[in-house]
Amino acid sequence: MTDGWDWRQPGASGVPAGQPVPGAPPASSPAREGGPPGASPWWSDALTDPWRDPNALAAVVLPAAPIVGAEPEQVTDPDAPGRPRLHQMLLVPLLAALLAGTLGGALGYAFAIRGGADGPVLGAAPGTAPTLAQRPPESLAGVAERVLPSVVTVRVAGVGGTSEGSGFIVSTDGHVITNDHVVAGGSGKASVVFNDGSTDSATVVGQDPESDLAVIKVSRTGLRPVEFGDSDALAVGDPVLAFGSPLSLANTVTSGIVSALDRTMQAGEPGGPTRYYAAIQTDAAVNHGNSGGPLVDAAGRVIGVNSTIKSLVADGQEAGNIGLAFAIPINQAKRVTQEIIGTGKARRTVIGAQVGGPGANTSGAGVRLAAVEPAGPAAGAGLRAGDVILRLDGRPMTEPTDLIALVRKYAPGSVVTVEYRRGSDRQNASVTLAADAK
């Protein structure tokens, strides 16, 4: 469809130039404005109009009929928006995210300033952290708080240098228990570092090398002594805490359990005394410097004196904790301490017999008596040389050390049951232990 004019170049209609087009008005009839209708174009200067093709017909041109089966021509609007590109597609969500983040941060800040009164409250209201005074007395922290003021670091100067260990206060007038091997080789003078960091000089009151116990005394009074427990009432698995100054780290507390009871052993330095232990075994971490410190139960009562450890290192190398530590039972340590304070020395408990080595027969292991002292405790109970001690108060004997260490654990005058074998007969005897005449 057009506006009624079909402008063509001359000759485009197929009529030779200069020839009249059929149906067109005669070219020889020039028309003037106001002439009769149909005689000439309706404006006078039509022949000179550059926008008028004098050869064009005033006709309506219809589009050609569509061809059956042909695809219609795609028509696009040049003013219509084109397909969005990738960067345009990403730009919109990016801007939305930035706006959302900015808005969220602003709202969060506003809620934080105002306390979030209009939003959900997560978690319980913050409380005050408990102080030591608020912790239960039976808790580990409660026990440590009570015991630490009674634990000290002991330093003794000797020929080979300064020996350092631990100790604990047992009387208000300044008596301190420690190990004999801590003060051995010293000049009899020592210094003590208290829990609060203050120091005081101390003197050695007395020592018992074989039980590895010693007592020193400071001049300070009004001290807080420890509370004693009952080492005979312990059971394997009971919780314990070890206190002391391992590797010069004062006020150290470690925890563990009772791993074994009456673990017998002997120890000693070359040229020094042989020490015998019927010890409490624990897996609480104990290292060099813990010697002489207290081992306490869950109620904060001292039930042992940390004394020695087992290690896998070779001789001459520095040993460290591997979870095998041993403490002198406090019942034995308390008795020895009282004797040292009272008389300056401790009595040694004996059975009145000598052991010559492990004795074994078809019934199992035992300790053979090499000799029995006349009028001694063993002889008074009817024991003879050659008898094999199988058990002492129910504890099996396998090595000579077992019999010596367990006898030393008891106080003189204690009555123990001895199961022994003579020949093929198994018998029992009650033996009243005595103190060594020395």
TrEMBL record:
PROSITE patterns named among the record's database cross-references: PDZ
Top-rank taxon: Bacteria
Region: Disordered, residue numbers: 1-48
Entry-linked InterPro entries: Chloro_Bact_Ser_Proteases, PDZ, PDZ_sf, Peptidase_S1_PA, Peptidase_S1C
Keyword Manganese on entry: no
One Gene Ontology MF term: serine-type endopeptidase activity
UniProt xrefs under CDD domains: cpPDZ_Deg_HtrA-like (cd06779)
UniProt keyword Cell division, yes or no: no
Annotated signal peptide: none
UniProt cross-references to Pfam families, sorted A to Z: PDZ_2 (PF13180), Trypsin_2 (PF13365)
Residue ranges occupied by any PDZ domain in the UniProt entry: 340-422
SMART domains, per database record: PDZ
Alphabetized UniProt keyword annotations: Hydrolase, Membrane, Protease, Transmembrane, Transmembrane helix
GO biological process annotation, one example: proteolysis
Name the UniProt record assigns to this protein: PDZ domain-containing protein
